[in-house]
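Why does this matter for the project? Reviewers at the last site visit asked to see concrete outputs rather than summary tables. In response, this paragraph embeds two records directly. Each consists of the residue sequence and, immediately after it, the corresponding structure tokens. Nothing has been edited or filtered.
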Amino acid sequence: MGKGGIKTAAQNRKAYHDYFVEDKHEAGIELRGTEVKSIRLGALNLKDSYAAVTKEGELYVYNMHISPYEKGNIFNHDPDRPKRLLMHKREIRKLHQQQKLDGYALIPLSVYFKDGRVKVEMGVCKGKKNYDKRQSMAERDAKREMERARKSH
């Protein structure tokens, strides 16, 4: 029986600050036993993580830190090991083509449970320059001010 529903385990909020998210894709992830338990406890960090396609045509995510499971003893795995993402070959090829474009990167945006399975939401992202970040912050502040003004009246 599937558990149903989607439960977010972690989000990469910094990705939205540092990049323009052009496109989103869902991928499965190949994990080892205790890693799933650590993710259920929310012991993972997506900061500074990215994905890349290897020469063999496989998609791996790097710098995704999954803390060792406390009760895992000798069965724990290296918290920073590259983890293979599971997608169809044609999807991986399409992502690889997009990634090769100048200034684009594959960034994990969130990790969540979907029907009891761990999924990763990948974003095809273009890096923001500093002035873009300032502009985004100014827009957010202006929006907040408008909300405040509307609530007070």
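We now turn to the second protein, recorded in exactly the same manner.
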Amino acid sequence: MKATRPLTAIATTIVTSCILGLSAMAHAKQPELKPFFADYKAEVSGISGSGSRSLEKDRQQWVLKFGAEVSIVIASINIDETSKLTLKDGKVQPVQYVYKRSGIGGKPAKTANFNWKKLESVWQQKDETSTVKFKQGSQDPLSYQLQLRLDLKAGKKTDLAYPVVDDDEVYERKFIIEGEEILSTRTGKLKTIKVKIVRDDDDRQTWIWFAKDWDYILVQFLQKENDSDYLIKFDQGKVDGKPVKGL
């Protein structure tokens, strides 16, 4: 005679299956990263410049880069930022951050290495070194923008905040989601999400626009400070190998 399974065993199997199923669903919904590159045109109170952003996979890590060049009369300012990072459970974890500035106001390169077991980062600029403790969820000065994109992509509607580790301090970068907007770009009109950076005073106001249909890449950045405007507008780019096109 075939043995009958106890009701407790059957119930345990059902509950376990449900938990595993929900876990798989949650894992499947985790935002994914896609490689991209984007070129921008910049204006700083009438002074022109250019910029670029890119994200590429390098073995088990991702490499996020930002570069900008602004020309002033016969001189120029060049800024290059690189963040090497990993993605764990939908969360960006910076591994190494490098900041370089040349031209006017040029400084020695600044490098930070993140140790997630010890929850500390070591910053070095020339002969100066500092160690900064941080908490889970912390970002570097560039990687937080990628985490913001992932959270917008995941459909988060509430205001967002990220601890940012920068040199010898940890500060919180806060954002207000202001809503959707159709933005005109060189490639046509794009559906965007408009986000404002929260600051302690009103002397500087900053907004960022992300393209909804193109993996939420940054397509416009506007900063107003002391009667000066700093505007970056999307020029061209690709997401996952596909050229960005308007509606």
